[in-house]
Write a structure and sequence with these properties.
The protein contains three helices and 18 strands. The chain is mainly β. Strands 1, 3, 4, 5, 6, 9, 14, 15, 16 and 18 form a ten-stranded mixed β-sheet that branches. Strands 2, 7, 8, 10, 11, 12, 13 and 17 form an eight-stranded antiparallel β-sheet that branches.
C-alpha cells in the first residue's frame, strides 16, 4: 500500500544536503554521550564530534563514515548525529533516503528517540526504528518500536524484517508515519509494518505521545551488529544520505487517526 503524503502532508523540516562541509549545525548536533559505556549494546566504535572524516556533506549527500584505527581504546571511529533541540516533533511523517554500506560487523540505523524522556530512561520513553540494518544480513532491513513492555532486552521487541528487491547498497526510502494511534513503516513508499496503539494502552505499551527527534548513525560491532564478527578490510565505509524530510498533517487529523 502506497503512502498518502502528497495529499495529506506538508513539508515542515528538511535537510537536502545542498551544501558542503560538516553537517548543518542549525539542524544537527553530535551525540557522543554513550561513548563511555558503549551505548548499552557493547558496540566497538567511538563516535566523534565535528570531524569531517566521520561526518561530512559533499555533492548533495551526507556521508557518515566509519574507520578502523589501531591503537585506540575502541578500534573504530564513526559518527552519530541527531536533531534534538533543533528538530523535535509530536506525530508526522519522517522520511530518509539512504544507501547503506556493505560488510559484516556494520550496524547503520535511522531512529527516533524521545527529546524529553518524560517516562524515564530507555526503553520507558520509547524508541522508533525507521530503519536498522546489520551487515551479516545484507539483503534485509528492519523496522521496530521499543517500549517498556516491548524491547530486545526482554525479547519482546515489535519488529519486522523486510527483504529488499535490490541491495541495501542502493538508495532506498525509509519512512514512518506516526499518529496518535499508530506507527506505520514504509520501504520505498510501500507500507511494510504497522504498530497500533491498543485501547486503554499504558505508557509501557505506548509512550509515543511526546516529542521525538531523529538520529542517524553507523555503529560497528555490538550485541547485534557484531554477533558474527567484523571484517576489517571493509573500512573505511559509509552510510550515504540523500535527504531527511519531515512532514506534518492537519493537527486534528493527526490526533484522531
Amino acid at each position: 500500500m502506497a503512502c498518502s503524503k502528497q495529499v495529506d502532508y506538508q513539508l515542515v523540516w528538511s535537510d537536502e544536503f545542498d551544501y558542503a562541509g560538516l553537517p548543518d549545525s542549525s539542524k544537527w548536533s553530535y551525540d557522543t554521550e554513550g561513548n563511555s559505556w558503549a551505548w548499552g549494546n557493547n558496540e566497538l566504535q567511538h563516535y566523534t564530534a565535528q570531524k569531517a572524516e566521520n561526518a561530512y556533506v559533499q555533492n548533495g549527500h551526507l556521508f557518515i563514515s566509519a574507520h578502523f584505527q589501531e591503537g585506540l581504546e575502541r578500534p573504530y571511529t564513526s559518527a552519530r548525529i541527531r536533531s534534538k533541540g533543533k528538530g523535535d516533533w509530536l506525530y508526522g511523517r519522517v522520511e530518509v533516503r539512504a544507501k547503506l554500506p556493505k560488510g559484516k560487523g556494520l550496524w547503520p540505523s535511522v531512529v527516533m528517540l524521545p527529546s524529553e524522556g518524560s517516562y524515564g530512561q530507555w526503553p520507558l520513553s520509547g524508541e522508533i526504528d525507521i530503519m536498522e540494518h546489520v551487515g551479516y544480513e545484507p539483503d534485509s532491513v528492519f523496522f521496530a518500536i521499543h517500549t517498556e513492555a516491548f524491547n530486545h532486552v526482554k525479547g519482546t521487541t515489535k519488529v519486522k524484517g523486510v527483504g529488499l528487491p535490490e541491495s541495501p547498497s542502493k538508495f532506498h526510502n525509509y519512512a514512518v508515519e506516526w499518529t496518535g494511534n499508530k506507527c506505520a513503516f514504509y520501504l520505498d513508499d510501500t507500507k511494510v509494518y504497522v504498530y497500533r496503539k491498543k485501547t486503554n494502552a499504558t505508557t509501557a505499551e505506548w509512550p509515543f505521545d511526546k516529542r521525538f527527534h531523529i538520529v542517524l548513525s553507523l555503529a560497528v560491532g555490538g550485541n547485534w551488529g557484531g554477533i558474527h564478527g567484523i571484517e576489517n578490510d571493509i573500512f573505511p565505509c559509509q552510510m550515504e544520505v540523500d535527504y531527511v524530510r519531515v512532514y506534518k498533517k492537519n493537527n486534528k487529523r493527526q490526533r484522531n487517526e
